[in-house]
Specification:
- By secondary structure, this protein is an alpha+beta fold.
- Helix content is 17%, strand content 39%.
- The chain has 3 domains: 139 residues, conserved putative lor/sdh protein from methanococcus maripaludis s2 fold (Beta Barrel), CATH 2.40.420; 88 residues, Efflux pump adaptor protein, beta barrel domain (Elongation Factor Tu (Ef-tu), domain 3, Beta Barrel), CATH 2.40.30.170; 125 residues, RNA polymerase II/Efflux pump adaptor protein, barrel-sandwich hybrid domain (OB fold (Dihydrolipoamide Acetyltransferase, E2P), Beta Barrel), CATH 2.40.50.
- It is built from 5 helices and 23 strands.
- Strands 1, 3, 18, 19, 20, 21 and 22 form a 7-stranded antiparallel sheet that branches. It has a 6-stranded antiparallel barrel with strand order 4-13-16-15-14-17.
- Helix 2 packs antiparallel against helix 3.
- The protein is elongated, with a radius of gyration of 34 Å.
- The C terminus is likely disordered.
Length: 363
């Protein structure tokens, strides 16, 4: 751009004069006929049509945290042997998980055996050995020994230096917190398990779309990685807090996973059925969106365009609902909006979205 006629110092093309009309809107930009033609700028008059048949959201499959299990040590000691050592290993419920050496637990087992022996030989005395035996047994149960292990100890009267511990639930190892030879403290995590019989499909939704979601309804999850397989699930959770920066919320759909075909991390689409309504709509490409706002370009004169902030709503196929910012009959740029936006930034030196307070706008 130069302040006088001539040729471009870069490419050598003749400079085109730009005329400014008195009182021209500062948010407007004027293009030449050549720019309109080269940019394939197309406009259309906004009108009303039916939208809202369904909403499609991008989703990611994740572990159902309600079906996750953390296996922790009930008592401190050294892990002499760990039977499952790799992340991703499947552990059946009741499988032997690790052997622990614990002096404290060994002493408690010895106390239980001595209490049983005294009960057998001195049961006629005034001392209630039955209560002592039960107290010693309760301590072993508290520290993670099973009824079967305690019964076997009572039968054999032999105190082993190692105590085996078993998995309380089945699942795949997602995190291996302890390793063979490690010393664990009471409450220390051994492994974290995930049951994959059901997964969460977590999708992001704009705040303006929340009112259309039936929180007790069902949703269809489509999985491109499995040939477009569709699974119906229940909407289990809608985050009560909206991110103030992005105006985006999270919804969570619980879906069954028979045969463990679905894997955490898979991408999918969540299809939500909505109520149809008659609204102002535009092609999706006509709307320029950032994290905080949405904008369109409208034609206000020949070859002259002005940016307008809008509030968007539902999306269906290639159409998007305009809730506010436009009125029926406005002439909107439907093709080439991004090119006009780039030209505006080039000429004005800043984005048309800068300086706008869109705190109350929804997307």
């Amino acid at each position: 751009m130069q302040d006088q006629p001539g040729k471009c110092p870069i490419c050598g093309m003749e400079l085109i004069s730009v005329k400014k009309t008195k009182g021209q809107n500062e948010n407007a930009i004027m293009l030449s006929d050549q720019q309109i033609q080269l940019g394939n700028i197309q406009v259309d008059t906004i009108g009303r049509e039916t939208i809202g048949d369904e909403t499609v959201l991008t989703a990611t499959l994740n572990i159902d945290e309600t079906k996750s299990t953390t296996v922790s040590a009930r008592i401190s000691g050294r892990i002499e042997r760990l039977y499952f050592k790799n992340q991703g290993d499947y552990i059946p419920k009741g499988a032997k998980l690790y052997d622990l050496y614990s002096e404290e637990l060994n002493n408690a087992k010895q106390e239980y055996v001595l209490a049983l022996e005294k009960q057998a030989t001195l049961d006629n005395t005034i001392i209630d050995f039955k209560q002592l035996v039960q107290g010693a047994k309760n301590k072993l149960l508290l520290w993670g020994m099973s009824e079967g292990q305690i019964n076997e100890l009572a039968k054999s009267k032999k105190v082993s230096t190692l105590t085996s511990f078993y998995s309380p639930e089945s699942g795949y190892i997602t995190t291996l917190e302890s390793h063979q030879g490690d010393y664990v403290t009471e409450g220390g995590t051994i492994v974290r398990l995930a049951n994959l019989t059901a997964l969460w499909a977590e999708a992001q939704v704009y705040a303006s779309q929340l009112s259309e979601i039936d929180r007790n309804g069902k949703a269809t999850v489509q999985l491109p990685d499995l040939g477009g397989k569709e699974i119906t699930g229940n909407i289990q959770f809608v985050n009560p807090e909206i991110d103030p920066d992005t105006r985006i919320n999270l919804i969570r759909i619980s879906i069954p996973n028979p045969g463990n075909q679905l894997k955490p991390g898979m991408q999918g689409h969540v299809v939500l059925k909505n109520r149809e309504r008659n609204s102002l709509t535009l092609p999706v490409d006509a709307v320029i969106r950032s994290e905080k706002m949405a904008m369109v370009w409208i034609q206000i004169d020949k070859n002259t365009f002005k940016n307008v902030m809008v509030e968007t709503g539902l999306e269906s196929d290639d159409r998007i609902e305009i809730r506010s910012g436009l009125k029926e009959g406005d002439v909107v740029v439907t093709n080439g909006a991004y090119l006009i936006n780039s030209e505006y930034i080039f000429k004005k030196g800043s984005s048309p979205m800068e300086g706008h307070d869109m705190g109350n706008m929804k997307m």
